[in-house]
């Protein structure tokens, strides 16, 4: 048992040395830190392992990470992140992963994901969501959480679409999946248009471009004038809308779903005007506006 404990402490030895060297911790604090880490490591090596020992150790390291951040601000010391903060974060992530894998409870997976998300360890967080879905794919909200993380935090539209489509194959009547899918497609187009605007501004500053060429580039980068690009014409969002209204059977749910689609589209900007108009027209043609009025009457 002792050799495993010492091996684990040796992996953190550079962290202890750096904390003492740069004076983020006093020598006494470093000694206490080492002692508490050793005590926690011994608890993990017990024959009968319990989840609370892993969680307590991870929580202790998180407290030290928060303290290090505060000390950095006080001392205005912004160096040696890779030698101090990163190893401690990876140690915490390792503890949460072992706890989730060994005891297989969703709350432990959620703790792991919450830590990785707060620590901005997006690659490991993506892997944690994958492990979560391997066990708890029967819960549709997990597909929504994973897809939203991949798109909004990990900036991976491809992974987000994959997760959403996996969820929709299993739960075609689950409205939040359709809402998330629709929002992802619109937000992705919004990102592309923002990049276009950034590129035209950058090209405006370039001295080697002629004024005539600038006008042509501006026209091609116009966020409203999408030309023949079907993708920027929101073709995917339209497909999602059509599939959603065909799949959702109950009229009240369908009306509520379209209202959510309209709200999301309106929040995205001017480029969705035609899409919003077509969705409102659909509600009018099929009498779904009546469902909206009934819902409002029930609320009052």
UniProtKB/TrEMBL annotation:
GO molecular function (one): snoRNA binding
This protein's superkingdom? Answer: Eukaryota
- What is its subcellular localisation? Nucleus, Nucleolus
The coiled-coil segments of this chain are none
Instruction: Fetch the InterPro entries from UniProt.
Output: Utp6, UTP6_N
The entry's cellular-component GO terms read: Pwp2p-containing subcomplex of 90S preribosome; small-subunit processome
Q: Does the keyword Nucleus apply?
A: yes
Pfam families attached here?
U3_assoc_6
What are the U3 small nucleolar RNA-associated protein 6 N-terminal domain coordinates in residue numbering? 9-77
Q: Which UniProt keywords apply?
A: Nucleus, Repeat, rRNA processing
Query: Where is the major localization of this protein?
Result: nucleus
Q: Can the keyword Iron-sulfur be found in this entry's annotation?
A: no
**UniProt record, GO biological process:** maturation of SSU-rRNA from tricistronic rRNA transcript (SSU-rRNA, 5.8S rRNA, LSU-rRNA)
What protein am I looking at? U3 small nucleolar RNA-associated protein 6 N-terminal domain-containing protein
Origin species: Meloidogyne incognita (Southern root-knot nematode worm)
């Amino acid at each position: 048992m002792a050799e495993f404990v010492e091996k684990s402490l040796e992996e953190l030895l550079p962290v202890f040395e750096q904390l003492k060297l740069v004076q983020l911790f006093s020598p006494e604090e470093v000694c206490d830190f080492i002692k508490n880490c050793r005590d926690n490591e011994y608890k993990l090596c017990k024959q009968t392992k319990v989840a609370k020992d892993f969680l307590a150790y991870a929580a202790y390291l998180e407290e030290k990470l928060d303290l290090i951040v505060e000390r950095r601000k006080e001392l205005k010391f912004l160096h040696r992140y890779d030698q101090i903060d990163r190893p401690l974060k990876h140690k915490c992530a390792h503890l949460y992963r072992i706890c989730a894998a060994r005891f297989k409870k969703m709350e432990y997976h959620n703790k792991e994901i919450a830590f990785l998300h707060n620590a901005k360890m997006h690659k490991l967080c993506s892997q944690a969501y994958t492990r979560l879905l391997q066990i708890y794919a029967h819960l549709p909200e997990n597909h929504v959480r994973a897809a939203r993380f991949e798109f909004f935090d990990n900036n991976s539209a491809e992974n987000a679409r994959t997760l959403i489509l996996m969820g929709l194959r299993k739960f075609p009547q689950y409205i939040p999946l359709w809402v998330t899918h629709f929002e992802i497609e619109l937000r992705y187009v919004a990102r592309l248009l923002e990049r276009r605007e950034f590129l035209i501004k950058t090209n405006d500053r370039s001295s080697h471009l002629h004024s005539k060429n600038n006008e042509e580039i501006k026209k091609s980068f116009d966020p409203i004038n999408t030309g023949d690009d079907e993708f920027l014409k929101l073709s995917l969002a339209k497909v999602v809308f059509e599939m959603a209204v065909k799949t959702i059977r109950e009229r009240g749910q369908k009306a509520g779903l379209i209202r959510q689609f309209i709200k999301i589209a309106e929040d995205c900007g001017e480029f969705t005007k035609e899409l919003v108009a077509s969705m409102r027209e659909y509600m009018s043609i099929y009498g779904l506006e009546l469902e909206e009025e009934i819902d409002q009457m029930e609320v009052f």
